[in-house]
């Protein structure tokens, strides 16, 4: 599945592993190493939490399928994911709505 980064959260991978017992796989991807966990929102929308080596340690990025391209839908899904993870919107460092043409 082709996934696109849509939001950066001010939480490290270790937070999700410890707080939610989410298992992250370490893998090589595009000549880089990342930690990845694939999840589903409400048993429907697939998304991934990822952190690449070299990114700030205190961040985790939310990736959504490339097919999800409408900025309003992306924003809604990011909000739903953050809510499902029992986080506040304040943890969102960046999201697609901040730079929709990126």
Q: Kindly state the number of beta strands.
A: 6
Q: Mean pLDDT, rounded to whole units?
A: 94
Please identify the structural class as seen in this structure: alpha+beta
Helix content: 10-25%
Cα-based radius of gyration, to the nearest Å? 13 Å
Q: Please, how many domains?
A: 1
What does the largest sheet look like? 6 strands, antiparallel
In what order do the strands lie side by side in the largest sheet?
A: 2-3-4-5-1-6
Flag low-confidence runs.
none
SS summary, helix count = 2
Strand content: 35-45%
Order of helices and strands: EHEEEEHE
Give the termini distance in whole angstroms: 20 Å
Overall form: globular
Write the layout of secondary structure elements.
Layout: E1 3-9, H1 13-20, E2 25-29, E3 32-41, E4 45-52, E5 60-65, H2 71-84, E6 92-95
Antiparallel strand pairs: 1-5, 1-6, 2-3, 3-4, 4-5
Short description:
This protein is of the alpha+beta class.
Describe the overall structure:
- The chain has 102 residues and is of the alpha+beta class.
- It has one domain.
- Helices cover 22% and strands 39% of the residues.
- The protein has two helices and six strands.
- A six-stranded antiparallel sheet has the order 2-3-4-5-1-6.
- Strand 4 (45-52) and strand 5 form a beta hairpin.
- The two termini are 20 Å apart.
């Amino acid at each position: 599945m082709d996934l696109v980064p849509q939001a950066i959260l001010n939480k490290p991978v270790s937070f999700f592993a410890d707080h939610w017992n989410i298992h992250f796989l370490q893998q090589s991807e595009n000549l880089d190493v990342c930690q990845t966990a694939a999840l589903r929102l409400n048993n429907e929308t697939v998304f991934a939490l990822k952190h690449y080596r070299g990114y700030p340690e205190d961040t985790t990025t939310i990736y959504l399928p490339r097919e999800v391209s409408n900025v309003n839908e992306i924003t809604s899904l990011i909000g739903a994911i953050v809510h499902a993870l029992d986080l506040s919107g304040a943890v969102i460092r960046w999201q697609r709505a901040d730079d929709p043409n990126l």
